[in-house]
Amino acid sequence: MEAEMHRRVAEDFVRAFGYVDDERVRAVFLVGSSASGEGDAYSDVDVMVVVNTVIPDDERLERLRAIGCRNIMLAIAGVDNPALPVQSQVIDKFIFRDTWFDVSYHLPYQLRFYFDYVTLVDKDELAPRLRKTRQVYSDADLKARVQADLRLLHARIYRYEKYVRRGEWVGLDLSAIKNLIVDLVMVLNDQPNYNRHSSRMSRLLRDLPVKPEHFEQDLLDILHLDNREAWPRKIEMLHRLEADLMALCEARWGPIAMFDDE
Predict the structure, then answer these.
(1) How many whole angstroms separate alpha carbon 216 and alpha carbon 222?
(2) Integer Cα distance of 76 and 93 in angstroms
(3) Is there a contact between 68 and 62 (Cβ–Cβ < 8 Å)?
(4) Rounded distance, CA 187 to CA 207, Å?
(5) pLDDT of residue 233 exceeding 90
(6) pLDDT in tens, 74-92
(7) pLDDT tens digits for 152-197?
(8) Do 74 and 57 form a contact (C-beta atoms < 8 A)?
(9) Which residue has the higher pLDDT, 68 or 208?
């Protein structure tokens, strides 16, 4: 129900914004949970726009205001943002008809589809050319990937512990640790082809074949208990999560060397 409503409001937005008549715009795709049919009351509408030339900020702002958008944030992410699986020129976030939208603009070479999408506009029949076959990994590839993730996770936990013991809280961010844990859980779920539209952590944790006790709660607490009083508990949970992930990986791939002098 939510996904269908999001699809309709996305179509209304595309018409209202005027993408069809804009020669700079070559295609528009609905992606994310709205395209996969898994949207819920908390889902945003994710739209990817393929352009030959980026529409300037002031023009996008004027057009968004003209069609009644509010809470507009322009260019919240840009080229080569490491948090995104595809390159984008800009990403705008706003509310249109009481629905949050994330609209990203891409040059044609920047976009490849590893995920579900719905074509809203396609002037040049780009969709077939943008589909990309999922990469196939050997078991040796996957073992090397989890080893790299585990090593980096260990190093980041050590770094986090060092900074909190110094009391240096400014700029301390756990998102890198979370991303490593997400990647490890995805590989353990046999979903190594990452994309942000089919990688919900709740589903990944639910589908994990073997899940250690307290694993999910530890992960949630680590992400939400980011304060000085909680840091001893958080470090304890980080080490426990690391040990659980190491045990899960070794149960599948055998011994994994953490250090090169072992």
Answers:
(1) 10
(2) 7
(3) no
(4) 12
(5) no
(6) 877 655 544 444 555 678 9
(7) 999 988 888 888 787 776 556 677 787 788 788 888 877 776 554 4
(8) yes
(9) 68
pLDDT digits (tens, 9 = 90+) for 43-56: 789 899 999 888 98
Compute φ and ψ for 103, nearest 5 degrees. Answer: -115, 120
Q: How many CB atoms lie within 10 A of CB 62?
A: 10
Contact 195, 115 (CB under 8 A): yes
Closest C-alpha among 28, 99, 30, 16 to residue 64: 16
* Eight-class DSSP state of 115: S
Is residue 219 within 8 A of residue 241, CB to CB? The reply is: yes
CB 95 within 8 A of CB 13: no
pTM more than 0.90: no
Select from 42, 37, 46, 36 the least CA-distant residue to 9: 46
Query: CB-based contacts of 5: which residues, under 8 Å, 6+ apart?
Result: none
Which helix (H) or strand (E) covers residue 28, if one does?
strand 25-31
Rounded CA gap, 92 and 258, in Å? Answer: 41
Length of the chain: 262
In the chain, the amino acid numbered 14 is V
* Sheet of strand 70-78, all strands in order from the earlier edge strand to the far edge: 70-78, 90-96, 99-106, 45-51, 25-31, 117-122
Q: At 203, is the pLDDT very low, low, confident or very high (cuts 50, 70, 90)?
A: low
In angstroms and rounded to an integer, the radius of gyration of the C-alpha atoms of the chain is 21
Alpha-carbon distance 26 to 24, whole Å? 6
Phi-psi region of 80 (alpha: psi -120 to 50; beta: other; left: phi over 0): left
59 pLDDT higher than 70: yes
